[in-house]
Amino acid sequence: MILTSSWLAQLAQLVAADGLPPETCSWAPLPRDDDFDLSSGFVDSVPRQFARCSLALDAAGGHASGLLETLIFGMPPERSFSPEASRCPEGLQFEELLLSPRYLVVAAQPEVARSSDWRELIPVGACVPPACHEAFANLALPRLLEWRQGKSAKYHPSPGPCAGAFDVDDASCVQHLDQDIRSEACVTAVHVWRVLCDARFFDELFGAQVRSLPKDSLGESSEFAEHQKAALGHYSTCKEGGGSYVGVYFNAVGEEDPAGAGYALGMCIPSLHTTYSSAVSTIVAWRLGLRMATAYPGVAIDADSVRSAELMHRNELEIGWAIIGLGRSGTTSLAAWLDSHPNLELLSDPEDHFREGSFDYLFRRSHLEHLIRRDELPSAARAGSAGPVRGRRTPLVGIKEPNLLRSSRGRQIMAEMKRTKVLIIFKNWVDWLKSAALFIRPTPCFPRNLARIGEEGNDCSFAFDEAHLFEKVRDLEQKGVARERIKVVHLDTLRAEGPAALRRLGAFLGAGNRSTGSSGSSAGAMPQEGEVAEDEVEFWEELCGLPTELARRLERRRSEALRGCDELLRRSGDAWHCIERGENPKCENG
């Protein structure tokens, strides 16, 4: 067990900064390397007692050990347990004490209800390794109380004067809970012991790459996929074990990385559920120094570059619905229409003309992030559930991000967001072609060049496969998006139905009961939003005047794009039928 780290030395500095004598944290002493040298010849001390106990708790399995099952509480005025109650498995011994109900309040333990008075002490006992005899009150017991809370575990200070073998001084207990445990140095020391009592668990959950490089392929068997699998696996295991998963970003000494930190690694630490304070930052930096020295001894960390933040899974975002495509097919108009529904709310950048930019363009910024930073999101985005809205509850929040349908990585992100329903809108293929081709910057593509893509001398670059909805929806389903979460609609259907379509979509999203017709009944027809191309007339004139061979090429493109779209509409209950062949109505009317 090696503790040495330049960051751990900051603990002593924190004590001095707080203006407190070192003995203030006697209930959570600052550990040193020699405290873990258990050979004879050293004078026994509280830190050495803590060291012995932490090693024993870790060896017993930490939070996953069977020690939790032996934890028992008595009923006042009882002050001890019977021999039967205190019988322990082989290799363990029973320890007991009296605990002030004030501490149980701070520790959020339900047994506080057993006491009718603050001075009525509650007996508590557990079977622990013999090495925890001296440190039972201030190390083993708070860890057991913490571990029994599972995923809801939070920082538990040592009880200090709030625990005793025969009695407890209430005034000292009050002062301890009100002042002593708030010391930044003491908080940091407790975090250190929280790690050491479950060290094997935390050690195994270090080093997953939480951000991949742009050059990495994004395929299923790619390095990117392997990194993502490792990061999400560590994150899930960490959360299941009651921990908090943190991203640590830093450069190696001598590195210059203008785009950001050169390393982005994941780390599991004891659960936060508190303010992300300098105490936590100190623990993260300390753990980084230790684990990197073990796993990557050749990498020297640039201490000034170290940054850290708690991470979260995209599935934790409170997003009930998402418009993910098809770009240039009415997504902006649909977003504005849904936002007019009384039980729906669109998140977007107020300055964004296309009603995009939710969470400060999170879904574009975090394209290469396997997990996202919790501190970059408003609290409303990560609290509660994205479940159905009833009555006048908070509106169901949604986003518009057409890029999520376009790319394989975007579709994988949607698969990760398992509570979010997916809306995809499209329109007549030739209308989409016009809108998408004229939107290309700096030089739009016109029909003649669109038909001749791939020929020498043709500078037009256009992705026809962006409109291949059936393949993209099938890929969504293969990646894990349940079919019942996906709804594909046709722009003309929505415009023809009017407000009834808005009620239908609201019902699908869980924002109202379409049988009553109440939700969204005051909404008007679908608005017309988004940019209108300046060269539409020229586009249609060139399209209608195409030679037969070039027109046939575009017709084949249309047939490829619309393959399977009738099935998509049928699944969604849309009455529109895709037009597979035929002349362009614009030309017929022309």
UniProtKB/TrEMBL annotation:
InterPro entries on file: P-loop_NTPase
Classification via SUPFAM superfamilies: P-loop containing nucleoside triphosphate hydrolases
Gene3D superfamilies recorded: P-loop containing nucleotide triphosphate hydrolases (3.40.50.300)
Signal listed as a keyword: yes
Keywords carried by this UniProt record: Signal
Signal peptide positions on this chain: 1-17
Protein name: Protein-tyrosine sulfotransferase
